[in-house]
């Protein structure tokens, strides 16, 4: 069942049909399924986007390794799939803390998801993807990352309930992720992007 009325001009399908379609996906495209709607995007983002994603993944991975955590970090390559929501998304960065089956290409149990917003993705990240992500029982933090200035919007879930929005601004601020027991500075997230001469 779709999340909302189907918009004419878009292609809709079930998650099962979408998974079959992925076998024919051109290498230069990135496909997602959001509420049963197929979203096709070209591979290749601005370098700033790619650098922010790399920074988040690297610093999170290093912090988790230093803490001896078994949680794993994935960047733009591992699907979040949710059958009831007819969704298969590729978050920019996500953290998974449960065991993964050998050969798995997706999870339905991320603990943290980051999306780096661009002009083309912002509405999808704020509305459509958030509609899907907030229904994932495992998710504890959803982080929207501005690409062109140091700012984060953070949604947190505690005791099964989503709290209000946390806003972080400026390179001196830090993102605390209670579900992982660590924090990440905005200066690390934006290193090499906004501190260039």
UniProtKB/TrEMBL annotation:
CDD domains: DUF820-like
Residue intervals passing through the bilayer: none
Protein name as catalogued: Putative restriction endonuclease domain-containing protein
Lineage of source species: Bacteria, Pseudomonadati, Pseudomonadota, Alphaproteobacteria, Hyphomicrobiales
PANTHER family per UniProt: GLR1098 PROTEIN, RESTRICTION ENDONUCLEASE DOMAIN-CONTAINING PROTEIN-RELATED
Domain of life: Bacteria
Putative restriction endonuclease domain span: 16-186
């Amino acid at each position: 069942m779709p999340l909302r009325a189907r918009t004419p001009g878009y292609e809709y399908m079930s998650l099962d049909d979408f998974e079959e379609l992925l076998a024919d996906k051109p290498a230069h495209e990135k496909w997602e399924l959001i509420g049963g709607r197929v979203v096709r995007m070209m591979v290749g983002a601005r370098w700033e986007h790619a650098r922010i994603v790399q920074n988040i993944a690297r610093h999170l991975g290093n912090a988790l390794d230093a803490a001896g955590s078994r949680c794993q970090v994935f960047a733009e390559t591992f699907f979040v799939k949710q059958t009831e929501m007819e969704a298969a998304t590729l978050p920019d960065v996500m953290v998974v803390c449960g065991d993964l089956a050998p050969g798995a290409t997706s999870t339905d149990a991320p603990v943290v998801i980051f999306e780096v917003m661009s002009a083309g993705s912002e509405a999808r990240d704020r509305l459509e993807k958030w509609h899907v992500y907030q229904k994932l029982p495992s998710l504890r933090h959803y982080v929207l990352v501005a690409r062109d200035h140091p700012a984060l919007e953070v949604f947190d879930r505690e005791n099964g309930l989503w709290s209000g929005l946390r806003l972080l601004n400026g390179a001196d601020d830090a993102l605390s992720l209670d579900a992982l027991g660590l924090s990440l500075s905005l200066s690390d997230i934006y290193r090499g992007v906004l501190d260039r001469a």
